[in-house]
UniProtKB/TrEMBL annotation:
The lineage of its organism: Bacteria, Bacillati, Actinomycetota, Actinomycetes, Streptosporangiales. GO terms for cellular component: cytoplasm. It comes from Actinomadura luteofluorescens. CDD domains: NAT_SF (cd04301). InterPro entries: Acyl_CoA_acyltransferase, GNAT_dom, Ribosomal_N-acetyltransferase. Keywords: Transferase. Pfam families: Acetyltransf_3. This is RimJ/RimL family protein N-acetyltransferase.
Amino acid sequence: MLVLTVEAWMYAVSLGDDGAELRPLEPWQAGEFLAHIDRGREFIGQYVGLPDRVTDLDSSRAHLQGYADKAAADKGRIYGIWAEGRLVGGVLFVTMDVGQGTAEAGCWLEPSAAGRGLVTRAVRAIIDWAVEERGIHRVEWHVSTANQPSIAVARRLGMTKEGTLRESYLYRGKRQDMEVWSVLAPEWREAKQTS
């Protein structure tokens, strides 16, 4: 179990014994973020539109600035996952409504980091922070029905599949089905106590 403090989120949070870390992603890191997206552009873009939005240094900076603005307004957050000193993926709160107690979490990862449990550990850390520090009651996970690795993360996190939104969004010219998963704060706390 990770215990997080405000000071920890300003710098880095360990994701385990392998040296992986979770850190805020900020606009000044636009070059590193773009290089990371370029390394995984095709892999990430299978299910996530991030590579279509981050195509050059300006769009990389703008994307990170958008999340800096969301963080300042307490409406979202973005974090990078570093392994062996290199940015290899990230997790985020796409949206966060503290007043309503809801948030939508998401993730992406370059292929070199797949299969190591990094996303599960990172999402676990941000959900724990959202529930315990920010009072979030419901965390959602929206995922393409074709994205089996992301669905596996939702299962490992103890989320409940609530349903499938058929052909709910257009991605690269094709209608996609989206699954909605969620975990509620009491379920999250209970699972932590039994693990």
